Amino acid sequence: MNFEDIKxxxxxxxxxxxxxxxxxxxxxxxNFKELLEKxxxxxxxxxxxxxxxxxxxxxTLDSNNFSHNIGMGEREARIACNLVARRHxxxxxxxxxxxxxxEAQPKAAGSTLLANLTNALxxxxxxxxxxxxxxxxxxxPMATGMTLSLCLLALSKQRPNARLxxxxxxxxxxxxxxxxxxxxxxxxxxxxxxxxxxxLVTDVTKFxxxxxxxxxxNILCLYTTTSCFAPRNSDNVVELAKLAKQMALPxxxxxxxxxxxxxxxxxxxKALNTGRIDYIVQSSDKNLLVPVGGAIVATRDEAMxxxxxxxxxGRASSSQSLDVLMTLLSLGRSGYESLLLERSHNFExxxxxxxxxxxxxxxxxxxxxxxxxxxxxxxxxxxxxPGDHRNALTELxxxxxxxxxxxxxxxxPGDVKxxxxxxxxxxxxxxxxxxxxxxxxVAATLGVTKAEIDRFFEVLHKCWDQLSKSNVN
Amino acid sequence: MNFEDIKxxxxxxxxxxxxxxxxxxxxxxxNFKELLEKxxxxxxxxxxxxxxxxxxxxxTLDSNNFSHNIGMGEREARIACNLVARRHxxxxxxxxxxxxxxEAQPKAAGSTLLANLTNALxxxxxxxxxxxxxxxxxxxPMATGMTLSLCLLALSKQRPNARLxxxxxxxxxxxxxxxxxxxxxxxxxxxxxxxxxxxLVTDVTKFxxxxxxxxxxNILCLYTTTSCFAPRNSDNVVELAKLAKQMALPxxxxxxxxxxxxxxxxxxxKALNTGRIDYIVQSSDKNLLVPVGGAIVATRDEAMxxxxxxxxxGRASSSQSLDVLMTLLSLGRSGYESLLLERSHNFExxxxxxxxxxxxxxxxxxxxxxxxxxxxxxxxxxxxxPGDHRNALTELxxxxxxxxxxxxxxxxPGDVKxxxxxxxxxxxxxxxxxxxxxxxxVAATLGVTKAEIDRFFEVLHKCWDQLSKSNVN
Amino acid sequence: MNFEDIKxxxxxxxxxxxxxxxxxxxxxxxNFKELLEKxxxxxxxxxxxxxxxxxxxxxTLDSNNFSHNIGMGEREARIACNLVARRHxxxxxxxxxxxxxxEAQPKAAGSTLLANLTNALxxxxxxxxxxxxxxxxxxxPMATGMTLSLCLLALSKQRPNARLxxxxxxxxxxxxxxxxxxxxxxxxxxxxxxxxxxxLVTDVTKFxxxxxxxxxxNILCLYTTTSCFAPRNSDNVVELAKLAKQMALPxxxxxxxxxxxxxxxxxxxKALNTGRIDYIVQSSDKNLLVPVGGAIVATRDEAMxxxxxxxxxGRASSSQSLDVLMTLLSLGRSGYESLLLERSHNFExxxxxxxxxxxxxxxxxxxxxxxxxxxxxxxxxxxxxPGDHRNALTELxxxxxxxxxxxxxxxxPGDVKxxxxxxxxxxxxxxxxxxxxxxxxVAATLGVTKAEIDRFFEVLHKCWDQLSKSNVN
Amino acid sequence: MNFEDIKxxxxxxxxxxxxxxxxxxxxxxxNFKELLEKxxxxxxxxxxxxxxxxxxxxxTLDSNNFSHNIGMGEREARIACNLVARRHxxxxxxxxxxxxxxEAQPKAAGSTLLANLTNALxxxxxxxxxxxxxxxxxxxPMATGMTLSLCLLALSKQRPNARLxxxxxxxxxxxxxxxxxxxxxxxxxxxxxxxxxxxLVTDVTKFxxxxxxxxxxNILCLYTTTSCFAPRNSDNVVELAKLAKQMALPxxxxxxxxxxxxxxxxxxxKALNTGRIDYIVQSSDKNLLVPVGGAIVATRDEAMxxxxxxxxxGRASSSQSLDVLMTLLSLGRSGYESLLLERSHNFExxxxxxxxxxxxxxxxxxxxxxxxxxxxxxxxxxxxxPGDHRNALTELxxxxxxxxxxxxxxxxPGDVKxxxxxxxxxxxxxxxxxxxxxxxxVAATLGVTKAEIDRFFEVLHKCWDQLSKSNVN
Lengths: 473, 473, 473, 473
Prior knowledge:
The structure is a homotetramer. By secondary structure, chain A is an alpha/beta fold. Chain A has helices at 15-38, 48-59, 82-87, 109-129, 144-158, 173-181, 204-214, 237-247, 262-274, 284-288, 302-309, 319-361, 389-402, 450-472, and strands at residues 70-71, 136-140, 164-168, 185-189, 192-194, 199-201, 219-225, 251-254, 279-283, 295-299, 374-378, 405-406, 409-411, 417-419, 422-424, 439-443. The first copy, chain A, has 3 domains: 3-93, Arc Repressor Mutant, subunit A (Orthogonal Bundle), CATH 1.10.10; 109-331, Aspartate Aminotransferase, domain 2 (3-Layer(aba) Sandwich); 336-472, Aspartate Aminotransferase, domain 1 (Alpha-Beta Complex). Chain A contains 14 helices and 16 strands. Chain A has a 7-stranded mixed sheet with strand order 2-10-9-8-7-3-4, sandwiched between helices. A 3-stranded antiparallel sheet of chain A has the order 11-16-13. The first copy, chain A, has a two-stranded antiparallel ribbon with strand order 5-6. In chain A, helix 4 (109-129) runs parallel beside helix 12 (319-361). The longest helix of chain A has 43 residues, at 319-361. The radius of gyration of chain A is 25 Å and the shape is globular. Chains A and B meet through helix 2, strand 1, helix 3, helix 5 and helix 6 of A and helix 2, strand 1, helix 3, helix 5 and helix 6 of B.
């Protein structure tokens, strides 16, 4: 609605009052204009009503919202349930067209704009965070795992005969399944244990060996992971990127929740500049605090992004673009930076509290120089009674959970897991060879508060004491 | 909230008034109970506030909504933007777990319940509609095309060496891309032209020939399509299902918008009973009038559904489950049946009006005995000036669109389209050999109104007259 | 937001797609423009999203929503609770200023516009409905009763020494309290019983007598009522208006739910033209189907409306204006007319069904030529046992209510009620002298459905049979 | 919805996951139970979704939301517009019954509960804030001015022949109009100027004189005001309450925005204990940060509250109760106390900054020992050019306003205002005799931020410099 074009009668409101209001509105219009023309994340977060105004306006650009639209096709974005229409701001057409996520839809100029704007703001955010070499971003409305699969399938189109994927082991199921879903064959490369630090790192040498042995022409790509549970470290993406470049092999990075961690970003930027990464994939929910369901693919080569977009079959949900756009506008650059800063402080606080705890409890915190998110705590004391320790571990996990602690994981040794025909010994510890002791992992991720950490230790102390006593008896 | 458990003081409300209200509330509780215990689509639609009450209550079962939750993991379903939380009713955890769409999440009992309930109601709906042999339904939060890809990839896990897909040609891009995205090789089987009816049917004989020639062991599956643009008919799913059974070959059906069409349902049910279909895939948006973004996979074998669910990598968006659940509850069985009935009447009306139009205009409506949704109208008059007819056709399309008619497609002869390296002559007409004349397709799909059809003909007449005049001149 | 002013980059959306959308948006802008410039009720209802767009835009005109506003006063329309802000679309300043409901607020151009626009649309509606002589409408955000009080107090300012109000008795409490709340003295004029019709009419003669006896200078005004429970008829507003004019006495009409009834409107228009009415007051909830809380005052003299507006002390809630504006835009003229037509049909249907019922049950339906909304049904059969009939009556009322019938009133004879010191014999029957038999009243008001009427008779039959049996025993 | 009563099948969600969720839900139920049973403000604010859950549940208790309701009356709370129903959470029946705000409605147990609960929480809040002698609270859905009128009219019913109101002058229009609207006669008692402090106080002696002269039997009540613009102080409510008690005269207090100010609360509590106050009236919007439209009446005598409630004619809007309830639950006791504390700090900060400013500018800040909200700043420098000073003053006001400063008032000397026939000399300065210089008032009210105050001084400095320069020239 454009008031400036309307001669509002003085009977409705005196002109001098109105003029002041119109002047104030022009500031809002300026924000809209700037956002659309410059496609940059605003410095400061917008108010809810401004965000909704933008989103509502965009949806008026879609044909299903034209007052004179006559739908004679097979898909006209009619929405039967009023509540559903409302929660989607009357967006119904999804994004992409005829199997290309980046193609514009003639029927849905608003949805097209929504998707492209979201991708542009994401690119701006990534560049701001330090991934300055990125040239393109695409929000894919699928889980991170499926999006990694899509990246593999896209690479596969270019190298149809190369069906092996060299993967630095990380014991997270969907990360691995991304390979098998795509019908490809994983070559699993175990992590190396640093004895002193009791933490795990990438076995770069083994990667090189495997390429030599298997033949580069049979290898689709290298596949590494940054953010992960301690005591595993982020993969050595810099070295592997160099290796990829040297061998002319594609390289994809699972940067699941790494956007929130400055050192990881720095490594990725360095890797982009000195080596080769084709796709960096990150979860939208973990990095942007939106509901589960999307992944952000970043590239330094726009052509590769287009190739990926065109590898999707069908139109896709615009719901994820909407969530991400609204969240980015709501936070603004400064809001996101505050979240990052707070997380970084809370990570240090968590580490400090854990070290305090271990000093008392006779445990250790493995040193992971390249893991700024997750921390581990050994649980050797709970293994005093050899026969019984599995129970004690299970009980600790269960006690924490019923007391409201979610996300703390007890990793017992000896679990064997079979995923799509591949067997993983000691699943959860990222290598076949057993770690000396079981441990517990906790993380300081975006949005965690100091109060939560305090409350966690309160509960941990209680559970620990209780278990220690019963262990003694 | 359970009022029955609270001793509400008479100072707040007199007990006799309250008791009447509590009695009324028990009816509502009975509905909730029945829905959850029986998992059947309610006969009559629920009111918006009842639907929202259910959805809100379900979301209280997810750990991110527990008042005492302490999130120490890497994914705790925190939602940064209030508007986003609100539009998702505070659901944040998505559905599925560790790469299995059908697995329950310990952190998210509510999301789990939401997803499973939606699948159960969909199954009930399909059975009611006539697909009585279905034993399982899964709403996949991806486009129909990608879901077809996922089905192909799932089959591929079971038959890793069979990489050919026998596909009855339909000129809809994402339908074809489902094959190439999965890294498989399509064998394109052209449709046959029925000369008298001027419509297209499945070349069953050619399917059989190809199997013989290529070897069943190399063929991953048969891949057919029901709902499509006239003058193509629905594929002969019954005969192909028999062939699949006979040859012990998997068979997937793209039933994109076929749920809304009784004869298609009847064919599918017959095919399920007399032959073999592994997965039937349909779009949620076209059949249920929700925003784009989901597909419903139906099977007669629960094990095949579980296999599919476990072929997804990562957790998935619960947004589509929410849309479908709310829509189903809003319509109820009777509401959906009314929509079907109205569509069926409107299809007949559209056919009748088209025949009237062609009688005047000297055109014909090809007879598609097996297409109850889409209708074609030849455009031979617009090709009077041979050199110029392409312009006239393009202009008709554009005139209709700018006048608010969306979804009416002009199919000119002679287009060649290349998709992922495969060339399609006369793209849009489902076969290489050219149809005699160009045509226009229109459809009567769920939600179209008689008023829209009337308005369409009003516009068509005007455009036709205008083009005829300028053609003469 | 004004897209036309923004150079949207082709990277966000191709210009040709965008242009079509902008053209569609111009239709919406045209609607906004027309509404604000002409201030007439739109012919057709607006879509929810159009209504909300307008309302949101209006609220941006209020200073509390300016992004740069610094509030240094005692009332800055800050809203603490996000949910409250949301449900009021960020309107916080209320309407009116410094004790004048019609004065514009410099801080709140949007709220001012909202209130004035609502009043303008109400005036247009009333004129359309047939009250063509109305020149002004004011939505007062208080109950009908309090608004009647406000009218009396406004008249009282002009005639401070006249403290008697001549009131045609109607047994509805708040209607009478409107007089006593204002500190004025009611002169109660009983209704006359028409013997044949068994219905009640205004005692015009008595009015004239009272004026003569009490002296016109002591009388503040005549006070009549249109819509009422049968067997009372609408007051003879035409004759009383003539009397008022002749005696130069003010006259106010309580037209509580009379807007929905064409004959009442016709009488009022006639009265306005041939006699004198100062204020006509009607409930917004009953006539416009909004939540309780407002009243519409109509006058034929704008000066009288201004006088009334300035008789309010303080600023008032804008919530009622919002409800009425949204409802009027949602219905449009045609929507409201459909509601009226449906009501009128349902009234006839209710009458017909009642007559059928009485024919069987040996009761009668009193004939109220001037009551087109409420109908009565005698309950003589329930009084067979003289000692017991009060119980039977109470039980009927209670049986109906517990079975979900709300609004059906059983009027037993003999109730005495004292309101603010005035005693009413046979309260509920509009006169001291007892009607022969008790009765039940039901009404066909705006929004009632045929299905509800059917269900009412189903329940009534069951209750009647049950009571008849137990009466016999 | 009560999950405990439903046997949720394991197919929907595993029972062990569900049980943990149900345990978490019990905490929520406990909160609901406590709120309704104890009727006390919760210590900590509730989450939005908890508030909405409560409100939705309450509305299911109203008959218009019963699924089996058949409305046969004249008011059945039907709501035509979906958006309106939604924003009122389907509450339609309003509060009160037949002209008594405190009476329960049989048709609307939920609305009744809503209103009574809100009143109970308000009472708890007032007692917590220090008005421990209060025994009853009533939220009246009318402006503060109209509510004061209602109080006067209620008193008037008890003393019908006493028509004079002794009013300590405060130049706020609606405060005065409260008297004239009620048809009563104000006796205006000017404030006294304290020479040294340059502030204004109540002329208690004059009150006593007027009672003697006019005769207590002719005086309806004393009428005082607490919160007001500097340099007026809060009235001396303690002495006037004593006088009222001594003379057996009613006394009402306009405590418009005084709830936010601890010293005012303390004075009122003292006055309640040592003297007589019948009704204390405060604005809901200014004290609770809800939209304009309600007033809270507090009494130490429940009977007086009931008398007031029964003095309202008709049913009233429940919208205000909803706003207040939601706001109170959202803030909780601790949230409101934080707001109070912040305001108190900001008042001191504003005072400090003003004193700094005056030291530079050669002006003074009048000392108002009994005004903890509003502050004045003399503007003598702007009157250097005698002929021109009015312009300079007007310009300052206008410059501030166009720069986004709302609520800062410039009070020029010499204004004469006539309200309902009463003339006020030097309107705005609370007394006929002119103050020596014009001044500007600003306030630190609930919700103001330090950043706003800083920005105000930034703007003030700029305007001041600009005006000073042009004054010189």
